[in-house]
């Protein structure tokens, strides 16, 4: 009897920093990705432990049944590596992978700035220098062609993802004055897995706390990316909200032309018409629950007040479209996989 065997070649991927929140989220999403195998995960603290011991929510995922944490990043061998590590750490591990021809998607801020003096000013650390490979800023809706060709993708910051997508169509069309204000509310998981006084439950619960009111490091990231499509000066203030996940951003700008709410909706529908992960809410206000656990960026509001101020609201899940989901979207683009592969979760209501 002749048996037919169909051999499916899976891409080997590794996650450096897989005990953190974005590393865990990569593991959750990749569990249902049909084109990849997760072959290495790293941790200094949990080296030697089985993945289910550290992340019990993954129990039962068949493809992870032989997956253990390794402590030594140099042992990692894969086709694609996600570095889900703090800024400063990423730049110490990424170059070693690039030298071996491995493609890397870095979730930190280390490779988001072409101008390293801006990086050093806002991150307050010295940069080791950019590697001599093609680097792309990983916001697919604005930079897909460059992502396809990149060896290193700098995954955007969580606030920049929601802010840039909220205002890009109006910037591109030149319909707003130069100054744009972004007011964002974020969930506590944005601060990472290690607790601090700021993230301590009694300090977060029943409070909304503005922080880094005029000096957050995502302000220059938002500004330099928007300046690739138009001319803007960005003001940005984040607030910590008593929620685990999600970023709601309200963008305020002043129109240069007398256009209606409906004209604005048409511009957004046209700009994002073919984008699977951007949903336009033409007659509703986006909610964080709708995007929870998903790779969607929901955009709505679209109101103009009597002074010509346009208000646009965006919602993302900071750990998905704001980090790990977008990182997988970037991997899919780099590898020629279907862009939505592994990212088809839908949100909640409530
Ligand atoms: N949380 C979010 O919403 C977002 C985060 N980001 C960025 O993504 C990156 C990861 O964030 P997040 O998951 O929240 O961070 P966490 O603090 O939750 O996790 C950090 C991970 O990095 C590992 N790590 C830390 N230091 C080192 C080191 N010196 N060598 C090797 N591994 C190390 C830790 O592993 P261990 O201690 O076990 O060794 C841990 O797995 C950061 O750069 C963050 O700024 C970007 C967008 C959104
Ligand atoms: C709640 C909270 O603390 N959020 C973090 C998000 C930072 C982040 O994600 O950092 P990078 O994208 O620059 O790597 C903050 O505001 O610093």
From TrEMBL:
<feature type="active site">
    <location>
        <position position="158"/>
    </location>
</feature>
<comment type="function">
    <text>Catalyzes the NADPH-dependent reduction of N-acetyl-5-glutamyl phosphate to yield N-acetyl-L-glutamate 5-semialdehyde.</text>
</comment>
<keyword id="KW-0963">Cytoplasm</keyword>
<dbReference type="InterPro" id="IPR036291">
    <property type="entry name" value="NAD(P)-bd_dom_sf"/>
</dbReference>
<dbReference type="GO" id="GO:0051287">
    <property type="term" value="F:NAD binding"/>
</dbReference>
<feature type="domain" description="Semialdehyde dehydrogenase NAD-binding">
    <location>
        <begin position="12"/>
        <end position="150"/>
    </location>
</feature>
<keyword id="KW-0055">Arginine biosynthesis</keyword>
<keyword id="KW-0560">Oxidoreductase</keyword>
<dbReference type="GO" id="GO:0005737">
    <property type="term" value="C:cytoplasm"/>
</dbReference>
<dbReference type="InterPro" id="IPR023013">
    <property type="entry name" value="AGPR_AS"/>
</dbReference>
<dbReference type="InterPro" id="IPR000706">
    <property type="entry name" value="AGPR_type-1"/>
</dbReference>
<dbReference type="Pfam" id="PF01118">
    <property type="entry name" value="Semialdhyde_dh"/>
</dbReference>
<comment type="pathway">
    <text>Amino-acid biosynthesis; L-arginine biosynthesis; N(2)-acetyl-L-ornithine from L-glutamate: step 3/4.</text>
</comment>
<keyword id="KW-0521">NADP</keyword>
<comment type="similarity">
    <text>Belongs to the NAGSA dehydrogenase family. Type 1 subfamily.</text>
</comment>
<dbReference type="Pfam" id="PF22698">
    <property type="entry name" value="Semialdhyde_dhC_1"/>
</dbReference>
<keyword id="KW-0028">Amino-acid biosynthesis</keyword>
<dbReference type="InterPro" id="IPR050085">
    <property type="entry name" value="AGPR"/>
</dbReference>
<dbReference type="InterPro" id="IPR058924">
    <property type="entry name" value="AGPR_dimerisation_dom"/>
</dbReference>
<dbReference type="GO" id="GO:0070401">
    <property type="term" value="F:NADP+ binding"/>
</dbReference>
<protein>
    <recommendedName>
        <fullName>N-acetyl-gamma-glutamyl-phosphate reductase</fullName>
        <ecNumber>1.2.1.38</ecNumber>
    </recommendedName>
</protein>
<dbReference type="InterPro" id="IPR000534">
    <property type="entry name" value="Semialdehyde_DH_NAD-bd"/>
</dbReference>
<dbReference type="GO" id="GO:0006526">
    <property type="term" value="P:L-arginine biosynthetic process"/>
</dbReference>
<dbReference type="GO" id="GO:0003942">
    <property type="term" value="F:N-acetyl-gamma-glutamyl-phosphate reductase activity"/>
</dbReference>
């Amino acid at each position: 009897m002749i048996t037919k065997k169909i051999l499916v070649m899976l891409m080997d991927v590794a996650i450096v920093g897989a005990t953190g929140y974005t590393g865990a989220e990569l593991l959750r999403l990749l569990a249902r990705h049909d084109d990849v195998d997760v072959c290495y995960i790293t941790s200094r603290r949990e080296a030697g432990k089985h993945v289910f011991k550290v992340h019990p929510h993954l129990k039962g995922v068949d493809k992870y049944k032989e997956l253990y944490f390794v402590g030594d990043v140099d042992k990692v061998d894969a086709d694609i590596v996600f570095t889900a590590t703090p800024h400063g750490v990423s730049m110490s591990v990424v170059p070693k992978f690039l030298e071996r021809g491995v493609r890397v998607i870095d979730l930190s801020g280390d490779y988001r700035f072409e101008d390293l003096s801006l990086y050093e000013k806002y991150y307050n650390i010295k940069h080791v220098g950019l590697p001599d490979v093609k680097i792309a800023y990983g916001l697919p809706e604005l930079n897909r062609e460059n992502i396809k060709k990149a060896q290193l993708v700098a995954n955007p910051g969580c606030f920049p993802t929601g802010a840039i997508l909220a205002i890009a169509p109006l910037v591109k069309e030149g319909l707003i004055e130069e100054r744009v204000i972004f007011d964002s509310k974020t969930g506590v998981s944005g601060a990472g897995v290690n607790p601090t006084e700021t993230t301590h439950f009694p300090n977060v619960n029943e409070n909304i706390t503005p922080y880094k009111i005029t000096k957050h490091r995502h302000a220059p990231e938002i500004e330099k990316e928007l300046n690739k499509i138009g001319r803007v000066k960005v003001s940005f203030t984040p607030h910590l909200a008593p929620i685990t996940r999600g970023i709601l951003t309200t963008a305020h700008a002043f129109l240069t032309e007398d256009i209606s709410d409906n004209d604005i909706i048409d511009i957004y529908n046209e700009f994002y018409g073919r984008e699977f992960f951007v949903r336009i809410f033409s007659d509703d206000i986006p909610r964080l629950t709708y995007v929870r656990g998903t790779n969607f960026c929901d955009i709505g509001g679209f109101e103009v007040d009597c002074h010509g101020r346009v208000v646009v609201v965006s919602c993302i899940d900071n750990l998905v479209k704001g980090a790990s989901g977008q990182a997988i979207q970037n991997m899919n683009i780099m590898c020629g996989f279907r862009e939505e592969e592994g990212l088809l979760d839908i949100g909640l209501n409530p």
